[in-house]
Amino acid sequence: MKQKQIAFLASTVYFIQGSLGISAVALPIYFRKLGWSISEITVISSLASLPWVLKVVYGFLSDSVPLFKYRRKSYLFLYLLLSLMGWLAFSCWGNNPMAVLISLWIANLGIAGTDVITDGLIVEHSDNEWGRVYQSLAWGFRSLGAVLTGFLGGWLVLSFQPKVIFLITACLPLLALPALIGFQESARTDAFSAAHLMQRLKSVSRFCFVRQNLLFVAFFALSSSSVLFGTPFFFYMKEQLFFADDYLGFLISLGWAGAAIGSLLFAVGMKRVSMKKLFCAVVILNVFNILSSYLLRGVDSAAWLVFLGGIAGGMTILPLMTASAILTTQSGTEGTLFALLMGVYNLSQILWGIIGGKLFPILGLWGLIATAAAIQCVAYFLIPMMRGNLFESSKDSAPGLPN
Fold this sequence. Notes:
The chain is an all-alpha fold. The protein has helices at about 1-20, 25-35, 40-45, 55-65, 75-95, 95-125, 130-160, 160-170, 175-180, 195-210, 210-220, 230-240, 245-270, 275-290, 300-330, 335-380, 390. The longest helix is centred in the C-terminal third of the chain and has 47 residues, at about 335-380.
């Protein structure tokens, strides 16, 4: 029963995360209307994601300091409220860089917090069977939410002012309330202890100095290099190929539909593939996915490339998420350690975005694509150096996946 409640809550939270893509088309177009350059939009959009880097803080608080006697439920209420308030503030006052950053920081703090708490629940209750189910549900429902709202977001741009779309986005966190109210969590009666807090800090410190974990973090960070050219590529399609706003929204939906299929393929077909081979496949698929951007010629090729790229994306992110869960489960600080890994991954995306914004005037779009592919190749050389339970716990099946 508890596993089903967690599965329902996780599905709802990740569906909301995907549904936030309803503003994915409106945001860059709105920034362009404010007179910002592509480089400025890339940098500011990346900086707006900074709260995602601090996920380890949210996880540590949830693991260590119960809020109103609960480790998960009360924090989820708080973060959902922050997400709503941030988007409301952005729709009302987001007219200059500082106002945009502050309001989006609040909104992203809220949604990042809900993500951390939900991840903590998943990792805390993961086993060989439910670990795979949770990860597949997470990415499947995130993809479903993005599919349903991607095209809708493009259509809304044609029909409404961007701030109306941002108001709609503000209401999305409310969808999690029924699942959250129905979730039953035992209240914590133990008092806060400084010694207990220090014990958790030591656990996190030990985790950070394990060579296996550091190599995985480096691999994880390098795998996100495609962010280098994400925003310039969007404006190439809009301003050079003249794709309509609703078609850009359709492409977002199509990409996430592919990601959902990729998630399903991973869950069904990859359970007997070793983690080492999965990591090699991650690099190869990412390189081909990035280089396929050179084949973009028009609307037809864009549809195929985005759909196939979505399938590849779904199949490459889930091995990394599964590995993250394996490294952190049964540690006593699951939420903190998993959030730490996700925070580093998000930081890498922010840094790649900022670097891409700075390099775009120098290298141009095609140079950024080549650079992103080269970075993926660097990640491949980390794989032979990885040892330990992540790669060696089974010769026949990936750790954490049932035989």
